[in-house]
Amino acid sequence: MRIVLCLLLFLAFPVPVFAQPAAPQAVGDYVVLMHGIGRSPAAMKKMEADLRRRGYGVLNLGYDSRKHSIAALVDNMHADVDAFAVDKTRKLHFVGHSMGALVIRAYAQKYKPANMGRIVALGSPNTGSEVADFLSQSSLYEKFYGPAGLELTTVYRAEHTFDKPFYEIGTIAGDRTIDPLSSVIIPGDDDGKVSIASTHVAGEKDHIVLHANHATMPSNAAVIIETAHFLQYGFFKRAGNMPR
Question: Which end of the chain, C or N, has fewer beta carbons within 10 A?
């Protein structure tokens, strides 16, 4: 059992390589990108490049995902976001991968930006992660993932719910896995880390399932296209997904 826990723990996410976000050059709406736990801005680079080509000003924000609680991460990011989105006539959108979207939702709920735009959540465990439930049985889990890691469990998410979104949020789930060990733990279809069911948000504007796995979701071509479409129109492009 301990061997399995350790294997899942260290395969769950790659070791982060931190990079500094590039300064925005565009004059369109703003987009803040936030990677998942244990990752770095490098994971969002393809998404960043695509959105810049579309004319957005992009802040690919790096943060210490394994050292602080989600509440602390929210407060830590505020100065960076506020300094980035100085023109309040331009909408401020957010795209978050996995835990990054939970931090974004907590940020929006606390600070309620006057120019709040849309949010896209990529493979985010909005109702908690069964993998986190399993791994948190080991004392190594908190040591490796820190306070925020414990906030990804289904029990914690059930007890700490977000308010109904006052913004438009689109949620993207994946149905491909490269982690069969985790998929045994997760009920139903999943992306290797998060079940499709857990990606839903009460009050979401749109939801879509794509052939993507959790680890590489932010760089998946279909995910990038659908993300840009939702930011612009408020619904996903794929046939059958119409505004509600």
Answer: N
Q: What is the rounded end-to-end Cα distance, in angstroms, of the chain?
A: 46
Query: What pTM was estimated for this model as a whole?
Result: 0.85
Which has the closest alpha carbon to 131: 68, 67, 63, 38?
A: 38
**What is the C-alpha R_g of the chain?**
17
DSSP label at residue 114: T
- Residue 115 falls inside a structural domain: yes
- Domain span including residue 57: 2-9+29-233
- Number of domains present in the structure of the chain: 1
Contacts with 156 (C-beta within 8 Å, 6 or more apart), sequence order: 128, 150
94-106 per-position pLDDT tens digit = 999 999 999 999 9
Residue predicted with more confidence, 39 or 154: 39
